[in-house]
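Quick illustration for those who missed Monday's session on complexes.
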Amino acid sequence: MAQLHHLPLLILLFFSAATAASARGTDEAHVSAVVAENGLAFAKDVLIGEAVRSLTPLRLPGVEKAVRVPFLGGVSVAASNITLFHLDVGDNSTVYPGDSGLVVVASGITANISMNWSYRYDSWLFPIEIADSGTASILVQGMEVGITMVIKNSNGSLALSVSQCGCYVKDLVISFYGGASWFYQGFINAFEDHIKAAVEKAIPENIIEGAGKLDSFLQGLPRTVNLDDVAALNMTFVNDPQYGNSSIEFDINGLITSAVAKTTNLQKHPHLSLSCGGVSKMLLLSLDEDVFNSALDVYFKAGSMHWVVDKVPEQSLLNTASWKFIIPRLYWNYPNDDMLLNISMASAPMIRITSEKIGATINADMIIDVADGKETVPVACISVVVSASGTVETSDNKVYGRVGLDDFSLALKWSKIGNIHMSLIQRVIRVFLNTVCMPYLNSRLGNGLILPVVHGFTLQDVYILTSAKQLTLCSDVIRTNASSLASSALL
Ligand SMILES: *[C@@H]1O[C@H](CO)[C@@H](O)[C@H](O)[C@H]1NC(C)=O
Ligand SMILES: *[C@@H]1O[C@H](CO)[C@@H](O)[C@H](O)[C@H]1NC(C)=O
Ligand SMILES: *[C@@H]1O[C@H](CO)[C@@H](O)[C@H](O)[C@H]1NC(C)=O
Ligand SMILES: *[C@@H]1O[C@H](CO)[C@@H](O)[C@H](O)[C@H]1NC(C)=O
Ligand SMILES: *[C@@H]1O[C@H](CO)[C@@H](O)[C@H](O)[C@H]1NC(C)=O
Ligand SMILES: *[C@@H]1O[C@H](CO)[C@@H](O)[C@H](O)[C@H]1NC(C)=O
Ligand SMILES: *[C@@H]1O[C@H](CO)[C@@H](O)[C@H](O)[C@H]1NC(C)=O
Ligand SMILES: *[C@@H]1O[C@H](CO)[C@@H](O)[C@H](O)[C@H]1NC(C)=O
Ligand SMILES: *[C@@H]1O[C@H](CO)[C@@H](O)[C@H](O)[C@H]1NC(C)=O
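Prediction with 2-acetamido-2-deoxy-beta-D-glucopyranose bound:
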């Protein structure tokens, strides 16, 4: 089974937006990701952390002004090298889907700014120029930043833009150091308005610039992600993101197609209703059964579903001698020869998901080969139709499957060794399915399916739910690596 290494679905966590919900088009979504309320809060915190990281240090323009000082007259004061080097957003921030987009409001922000100041004074009263300089630190208090982001579907990718961004500075505390700094507190007014205005202008400008980078990143995400040589995942976004009161849903085509050729389109399903069995999780990922069936179809058509069995726990069963009495002609024609079972799928296995279980139907042809000297001779072919049911478990960022045999039926397709009574081999086949086939399948499934997670994030407490035709993963997300998003590579 393919390992889904590259699915960058979780990247969605960062690109939350709400646009007027458009009618669902004729396009087909087979994977839906719903970022729930606490998922949005998490995304907001990550976004804010990234914003703070990329905003600081922020260089603000300098200023030079003439101020009037009683008795002295005009004095030229200047501030230069004004640098906002620390931002503290605290935890007073909110995120919610608004009318025209996703709104993030952070209030009570404090910031630290450093600057150099100087002043120059010369007049007819004094024959020499008087000048001084020093540094100042500025504490910005009660800053508020509001951003409205819009995410739209642009030709199958997500396009992000900032429709509104504002910054308001309530209070500045400027402390001068150096020179006769106590004296220059009087110049504070000259700088205060400038710094306030500079911050209120620079922060939104830089946020919009950062959003532009995020937008390029999003639009640059590949539409198809090759899982291996055979299969590719269609990552085309379908529809605009849709928002609820406190959640956003993204729909993705999500079907596995051949890496070389296209497959046919499969059926469309109604979209995910926001439900996680009453459990509150950050992220809900719903996968249609079509996603699994499209993958199985691709691997079937690529001819990779073959299996030759020459070892079984009871090895004597793979010798014609054991079949002397049940299939006499096999033994007469090939006495004491070793046998092989050449198993191939007659059609792509089918997965059926219901609220009770995940069921699979496997339709295989089992050719009995006899090793007659150097030659391998096919002597009979039995059609085996197996129904199995599966369970899904998770650990870390992986999903593991297990299957168990429910039932099976046998039919003789052709034979060169006379009629074989299926009822006589039923018991042996059951043992074979239980001791060889199911463990084999489980060892393949046991490699697990790597869940779509961006580098540096881990799914936590994944909870799996099945409903009609759908598998839903409900999960929390934790940040395991605080490296910058900008440099984060997808798994
Ligand atoms: C500007 O300020 C930074 C830190 O606040 C300081 O390291 C740097 O030397 C200053 N540059 C000038 C030209 O004063
Ligand atoms: C949090 O934000 C709200 C709304 O902007 C504001 O009224 C409140 O004073 C803030 N609380 C703190 C601790 O900053
Ligand atoms: C920012 O300024 C405040 C008040 O002056 C101070 O307590 C805090 O340590 C400063 N932060 C940094 C990172 O310098
Ligand atoms: C400007 O201020 C920084 C610290 O805020 C200081 O390191 C630097 O030397 C100052 N530059 C001048 C030219 O005074
Ligand atoms: C839309 O996407 C397709 C497939 O990636 C591409 O070939 C086409 O040029 C894109 N169209 C526009 C208008 O960007
Ligand atoms: C959204 O909020 C409105 C008003 O608060 C409420 O009537 C509606 O039922 C809510 N919808 C959902 C899906 O929670
Ligand atoms: C991927 O999905 C989109 C949207 O459903 C569809 O238009 C496109 O043909 C699909 N691509 C492939 C290779 O199947
Ligand atoms: C197994 O059977 C297939 C046809 O079903 C055949 O192409 C293949 O060569 C066979 N392999 C062996 C090892 O007998
Ligand atoms: C975090 O990611 C960076 C870059 O991808 C890597 O160099 C670093 O070792 C990682 N740290 C941890 C704790 O995983």
